[in-house]
Design goal:
By secondary structure, the chain is of the alpha+beta class. The chain contains 25 helices and 26 strands. The strands form 5 sheets. It has an 8-stranded mixed β-barrel with strand order 18-19-21-22-23-24-25-26, surrounded by 5 helices.
């Protein structure tokens, strides 16, 4: 059924035109009829509605006085006059109680309409199958006094619509029949010229290639005929060109017959193989084929003979007369007889030596570093996968060495990238010369190199020992001076090493481990070899988590200050040291020993330090309001990064002014690390703050090594004896000597002394005996929150 329908619809062009045009005309006329009747129906509905509304308005207006006066006879006369309106079914006047005052049917006058709703809008329109009802309020002096109802009969206009539909259907049917007739005649006229072209095409297909249509005219069929003739001319030209192409030097061409062997060979193939045509005809394909490629070619040709395929393509190497191996692309196609046997075999032989060379060059660019000629990161991944497979198969340990040149950036910045490139090339050469045969050196990127060591040993300890020896030899080799553009230059490298056994670890994971251990070698002083330890990775992961949590802590104000009391020799509180604590939502209170080094390294110490200054000044302001705490000083620790900020002095002044605190009660504790650089600037900042009353205490005094020469120049108020000297004070004579010296030095410079870490009365008494008058430690109180601290003050006092 479907095929019959396809034959009817998809037959000749003439039939397609007739069926198509008939469908289009039918569809268009159908849409026209539908649109016409739909529009007429809408127009009639609107007309009847407007008539009903106008009639209701007229009746409501004219009956208002009569309803108000309850003149029923006058109302009835008005309704009788309206009843003469065409298509009026009924007209009703109703008072507010629902009583019919006038009606076109006199028998209904005086009756009540119970279902009538007096809360209706001023005008309502209802449609039914046979009528249009309009209810209109009778209004007099802006007050509703009754209602009129107009009911128009719709049957008349429905009959008109039906008549329009019938007429439109006949018009459409007539148009369709006329369109089909015109389409039939037009299709016959238009396709007769195409029929002529078809007949010529059929004859050309049978072999009469000399025939042409030669049709006159300017219509599309004539243009098509002319183009068809031009196409035939082009095909004839192509045939002559194809005949001449055979003799061109573009590709090697041969025509072979299973019965006659080589029939013809073009000059290009003769030139390629360095034989004459006569010489080639005496040889076979086997004689000319590179031995390793013969099997694949014969297998495909056997399939061709078996009628499994009509052609094939493959890369194949030929041997020329002089013995040169020529890579080619061989394309073979066959022409078969009617019985399926091969009549001729055509072979196209293209020399692809240049393409092969280009491919090698492309691969070199893709997988090798152009500067050092070493395998690059892409090839490293492949080599590492192979190394893992080899290790798994032989159960021998392998290793990755991750090298990073020390201070390479300094060389680039001072001498330029050209010198840096020369150094990288020399380093690459040294690495190539020192590694074992079979190992791989790659340039990972920048000044980083990765070495893959394979088949070290089956014993882990022995393998690690050998790897350590290889890495040490690499360090010694890299450390030798370099001659770069006539100048001697020395460098070193840091090496991270990780072992692998089997194929259970991914290349990315191994590289990550080697990178982590190299980073550890850098941190440990450079020019070292460090083996991967899982603890390193855990440490780095914890560091990342800690850094993320610190950012959250800053954002959500999770830091708070703890206060450790400072007392004099009579144990009277004289102040406190503010110590930051981190109230982690999951871990609770986190010691500053755990997070302060990280905030120092990342620079977050600046923002945290600002918060400490503000919090301390806010607390001093609060203490100034109470008798027990009004004279207490408060010490805060300031880091080197924070102190060296250009606006540090302004930050302190702004906080003091903001909270209106006595600057003499704020004490800044500095460690000796602050004094390592820019001493003159440091002195200027300290003098500026000392001028407004800020006091300075040198924290952890005696543990540094650079501040003694500047001690007399600094506007210090106090030296703080480090707790490491106080802890063993009563049992270690060296600690006693150091403490005694610090106190004596402070007294000679006019500085006060405070000892931290005091835990026993024996320690305190010894310090007092040596002239120390201020103390801080667990003997008096641990660092505690502010509410506990303020409760503690009266107890100590």
């Amino acid at each position: 059924m479907i095929k019959k329908l396809q034959r009817i619809l998809l037959g000749t062009l003439r039939r397609q035109m007739m069926i198509g045009m008939t469908l289009i005309i039918t569809l268009m006329m159908g849409l026209f009829v539908w649109d016409t009747t739909h529009r007429q129906q809408k127009i009639k509905v609107e007309q009847y509605k407007d008539q009903a509304i106008a009639l209701a308005d007229t009746l409501a207006t004219s009956s208002a006085i009569w309803v108000a006066s309850r003149d029923v006879s006058g109302l009835q006369e008005i309704v009788n006059g309206v009843s003469k309106y065409p298509n009026l079914k009924q007209a009703i006047v109703i008072d507010l109680r629902g009583q019919v005052l006038a009606h076109t049917d006199l028998t209904k006058v005086g009756l009540y309409i119970d279902a009538f709703n007096q809360d209706n809008d001023l005008q309502q329109i209802h449609y039914s199958d046979s009528s249009i009802d309009v209810t209109k309020a009778i209004v007099l002096a802006d007050r509703e006094i009754g209602w009129v109802v107009i009911d128009l009969d719709r049957r008349a206009y429905l009959e008109e619509i039906n008549q329009i539909k019938i007429n439109s259907f006949f018009y459409a049917l007539t148009a369709i029949l006329l369109g089909v007739l015109i389409t039939t005649l037009a299709s016959r006229y238009l396709t007769r010229r195409l029929y002529i072209i078809q007949k010529v095409a059929d004859k050309v297909q049978t072999g009469a290639t000399h025939l042409r249509v030669n049709m006159k005219g300017t219509d599309e069929a004539s243009l098509l005929a002319k183009q068809f003739d031009q196409m035939l001319d082009s095909l004839a030209l192509r045939e002559s060109q194809l005949a001449s192409f055979y003799s061109l030097d573009l590709v090697g061409l041969t025509v072979t017959s299973p019965d006659k062997g080589l029939i013809s060979i073009n000059p290009c193939l003769c030139k390629m193989l360095e034989y004459t045509e006569e010489q080639l005809k005496k040889l076979t394909w086997n004689d000319l084929t590179y031995p390793n490629d013969l099997e694949a070619d014969e297998a495909q040709f056997t399939r061709l003979l078996a009628n499994e395929i009509d052609g094939y393509s493959l890369e194949k190497r030929f041997i020329s007369r002089t013995g040169k191996v020529i890579p080619t692309m061989l394309v073979v196609r066959c022409v078969r007889k009617n019985d399926g046997s091969i009549d001729y075999v055509l072979a196209m032989v293209q020399d692809i030596s240049k393409q092969k060379e280009d491919a090698i060059q492309i691969e070199r660019l893709a997988y090798f570093d152009p500067l050092t000629k070493l395998p690059n990161r892409r090839l490293l991944d492949d080599r590492l996968k192979q190394a893992l497979i080899f290790s798994d198969r032989n159960q021998y340990y392998g290793a990755i060495l991750f090298l990073d040149l020390d201070n390479f950036k300094t060389l680039n910045d001072t001498l330029g990238h050209d010198i840096g490139d020369l150094l990288l090339q020399q380093v690459a050469n040294r690495l190539i010369n020192i590694i074992r045969e079979g190992d791989t050196v790659t340039r990972f990127g920048g000044d980083e190199f990765v070495i893959i060591l394979e088949g070290i040993h089956s014993n882990a300890f022995v393998a690690a020992t050998q790897i350590k020896a290889i890495a040490t030899a690499i360090l010694d080799t890299i450390n030798q001076p370099y001659n770069i553009v006539g100048h001697s230059y020395s460098t070193s490298t840091s090496i991270g090493a990780t072992l692998f056994l089997g194929n259970n670890t991914t290349p990315d994971e191994l590289l990550k481990q080697a990178d982590i251990s190299m980073y550890q070698a850098k941190k440990s002083g450079r020019n070292l070899v460090c083996f991967f330890d899982p603890k390193m990775e855990i440490s780095i992961i914890n560091r990342v988590v800690l850094e993320r949590d610190l950012l959250i802590a800053l954002e959500h104000n999770q830091f708070q200050l703890y206060y450790q009391v400072q007392v004099d020799s009579s144990n009277t509180p004289v102040g406190a040291e503010a110590l930051i604590r981190w109230n982690h939502p999951q871990r609770g209170i986190v010691s500053p020993l755990e997070f302060i080094p990280l905030v120092e390294e990342t620079g977050m110490i600046i923002e945290i330090g600002q918060w400490v200054i503000d919090s301390a000044c806010r607390q001093l302001n609060a203490w100034q309001q109470h008798v027990n705490t009004t004279g207490l000083s408060l010490s805060i620790n300031v880091s080197a990064k924070q102190f060296h900020k250009a606006d540090f002095v302004d930050i302190i002044k702004k906080s003091i002014d903001k909270y209106s605190v006595n600057p003499k009660l704020l004490k800044i504790e500095l460690t000796e690390s602050v004094l390592l650089n820019n001493i003159q600037t440091i002195i200027e900042k300290m003098n500026t703050l000392a001028a407004i009353g800020i006091q300075f205490s040198l924290d952890d005094f005696g543990t540094g090594y650079s501040s003694l020469q500047y001690l007399k120049k600094l506007p210090l108020h106090q030296l703080k004896i480090d707790q490491s000297f106080v802890r063993e004070l009563c049992v270690d004579s060296n600690d006693k000597t150091i403490v005694k010296t610090i106190i004596s030095m402070a007294q000679s410079l006019g500085l006060s002394v405070i000892a931290e870490g005091v835990e026993t009365e024996q320690q305190q008494q010894y310090l007092i005996s040596q002239g120390c008058r201020n103390f801080q430690g667990y003997l008096f109180s641990r660092p505690i929150p502010i509410d506990q601290f303020e409760s503690l003050i009266p107890q100590i006092a």
